[in-house]
Design goal:
- The structure is a single chain.
- This protein is mainly beta.
- Helices cover about 5% and strands about 50% of the residues.
- The protein has two domains: about 1-125, Sandwich (Immunoglobulin-like), CATH 2.60.40; about 135-285, Sandwich (Jelly Rolls), CATH 2.60.120.
- A hairpin with a 7-residue loop joins strand 8 (about 80-90) and strand 9.
- The protein starts with a strand and ends with a strand.
Amino acid sequence: MKQLLPGPAVFFALLLSGCSIFDKDNEQASYISVNEFTVSTDPVIQGSSSSKITDAWIYVDNNLLGAYSLPCRVPVLKSGNSEILLGAGIKVNGISTLRSPYVFYKLSPHEITLVPGETTFISPEVVYFDSLSFPLIATFDDISGNKLEATSASDTNVFITTNPSKVFEGNGCQIVTLERDSGYIEFQTVEAFNLPRQGTPVYAELNYKCSHVLSIGVAAYYALSNTQKHLIINLNPTDNWNKVYLNLTNPVSTEVNADDYRLFFYVEKASGTEPVEILIDNLKIIHS
């Protein structure tokens, strides 16, 4: 049994990994089994339902039982009718030690009957809270609706591809390439956003695939002074599509007097490395 102590983004409880909490069944316990979560969205106002939920936060009759890595089989020292609430846990900024329930997903409720020695299998579905704002939803399915642009510092441009072998889902995705021996890529959201400050949760979500380290951050723009940039994460290269939830709350609230904000992305290509290819799909900005 492996236990992870709470990180900064985990408010309370232990994160327990593995398919079973005990090596041997405890006959006094009932069991709950969760393999994965699904997410349901309104695609028009909330965008893609793609997700990367790694943990289940389990509440039994309104009491937190704990947080468990998926898939999990969890003992419950209780029997009979019970209300089970399941929270979808994520790796904040893609970091394994920053694990938390995603603040924008509702808990998934389930009424079940717990039987000692038996396992109840639950397939939770979560949805976004109705009150959320989505100032940016970029599916890149419309080639005339580019949501990202290269900056003047970039050695290449950004495009939308409709090549099915490149696209994560839908009809298109953003692509950025650089084949020269060395260079620098920088691009950003076309639109600048007026985002809430004072600690109000602000996140970005995106699917990505990158041949080189992809750095992402928040740029705070001031009319009468210099732009302030805050790096959030360096995403490692991946041959497969991945999903990340980026917490923008701190940099946005730190630059409380900024006029507006943009997401920025950059890649540095060292001499002798393979050509750069960056693919991005389903980019969202969400806040309360």
